[in-house]
Amino acid sequence: MTGTPPIRLGPRSVAALLLVSAVGITGFGWPFLAPPSSQIGTHAQDAPWLFAGLLVLLVAVVAATIAESGLGPKAVAMLGVLAATGAALRPIGAGTAGIEPMFFLMVLSGRVLGPGFGFTLGSLTMFASALLTGGVGPWMPFQMLAMGWFTMGAGLLPGPDRLRGRAELALLAVYGFLAAFAYGTIMNLAGWPFMGTLASGIAFDPHAAVPANLARFLAYCVATSLGWDLGRAVVTVVLTLTLGPAVLRALRRATRRAAFETAVTFEPHRPVKHPT
Question: 45 — phi, psi (to 5°)?
């Protein structure tokens, strides 16, 4: 195996991915991007649905564009199996103390299958998980995008062709630990601005300056999600170090058998010389 990602992102795929990421960054970070005098805060209750509809469309565009770059039937089958497996793993811990084993599978899958496949897999897994657990709501597109970034990041880690063994596991464990916190922090941004006055000391204040809101947001993260994020990070590291070698071997074996991007070539016909 050469380590070449199974999906090569062409110009349209890259443009679509950048577009959906830009909209996602705006959707997540608008409390820090909008000036205090902006009237966007008066439409806070409408924002989740507006961003949700737009993000669903853009993620669909990214998935369709990536599919146009040569995703064969075996790759589609592998994508479906991994997404179904990840979706089935998510309810195991039911969010208890951050016990979410699906994250370690996304890290290893993104590492083996590359950033393009990883983004599609992460988004599709979260979509299937939401349908499975009944977690469909305005937060779902944000979860899809955040998980797509999470899985894509693993595919962008250095040394996919050369780094193996303990060094690779250590790299994936460190990435999984940090990315688990990043995922939780990003998802906090999806709900924090809409707390209203339930907790005035940590709620978003549309009239406050960016530094003040940043301090409120950090306090919100510590008070509401630090324990879950730490649990998710620890579980991801433990599963990566213990089950990682076997799962990586299985994924790489499956990728070889699927023969991603293996072009069919025909040798030119050579006339057969008959003995005279």
Answer: -70, -20
Is 146:20 a contact under the CB 8 Å cutoff?
Answer: no
pTM, two decimals, is 0.78
Mean pLDDT, range 235-242, rounded to an integer:
94
CB-based contact 115:62 (threshold 8 Å): no
Distance from the Cα of residue 75 to its chain's centroid:
18
- Helix ranges (DSSP H) in the chain: 11-33, 47-67, 73-93, 102-133, 140-155, 165-191, 210-224, 226-258
Question: What are 72-130's pLDDT values in tens digits?
Answer: 677 778 888 898 888 888 877 655 666 788 999 999 999 988 887 888 888 889 888 88
Q: Is 228 in contact with 98 (CB distance < 8 Å)?
A: yes
Show Cβ contacts of residue 260 under 8 Å, excluding neighbours closer than 6 positions.
4, 6, 7, 72, 74, 75
Distance CA 109, CA 223 (A): 32
Q: Show Cβ contacts of residue 33 under 8 Å, excluding neighbours closer than 6 positions.
A: 26
